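Sequence design from tokenized structure. All designs in this work follow the same two-part layout: the structure record, then the generated sequence. An example of the structure record is given first.
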């Protein structure tokens, strides 16, 4: 009798977990778009998807926030190599729709990080906010170890384990 009661309870718990998981939203609406630029290869404020490790010193990643997004946020960018390994993660404290001042303690960083202010940005006919983050390419492991191919950048917001929008892919060649 006890064994059948335990089996019934176990089945009920498994069913509840399965139903709860399927009822949860699979993904939130995208809150950011990531655009990539290089001062050497995409002049005049344009963006690109393919870059040369020998011509580019730093890539600039613009995290463009969806309309209506405001306030102070932690924006984490995770960069994956062409083979899918995490190459670098950087977190940027940002104020969207206001002015930034001072520094903020960021988990995992030994010193406070300067808060960035997101300037207004015209994109696809809308005025949005963006935060820029540099990604060193020239003189890094990318060229020294021929880490060429299609990379991926993914944004996470405020410590969430789930990405905040679609990943952006970009190519780094020799």
């Amino acid at each position: 009798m006890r064994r059948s009661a335990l089996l019934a309870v176990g089945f009920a718990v498994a069913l509840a977990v399965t139903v709860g998981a399927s009822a949860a939203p699979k993904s939130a609406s995208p809150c950011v778009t990531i655009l990539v630029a290089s001062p050497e290869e995409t002049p005049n404020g344009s963006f690109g998807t393919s870059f040369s490790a020998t011509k580019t010193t730093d890539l600039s990643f613009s995290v463009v926030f969806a309309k209506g997004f405001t306030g102070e946020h932690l924006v984490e960018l995770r960069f994956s190599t062409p083979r899918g390994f995490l190459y670098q993660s950087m977190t940027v404290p940002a104020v969207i729709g206001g002015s930034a001042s001072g520094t903020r303690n960021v988990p995992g960083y030994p010193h406070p990080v300067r808060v960035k202010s997101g300037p207004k940005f015209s994109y696809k006919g809308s005025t949005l906010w963006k935060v820029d983050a540099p990604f060193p390419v020239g003189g890094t492991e990318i060229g020294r170890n021929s880490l060429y191919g299609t990379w991926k950048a993914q944004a996470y917001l405020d410590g969430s384990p789930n990405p905040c929008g679609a990943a952006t892919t970009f190519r780094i060649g020799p």
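Residues 1-28 have pLDDT under 50 and may be disordered. We note this feature because it recurs in several other targets discussed in the main text.
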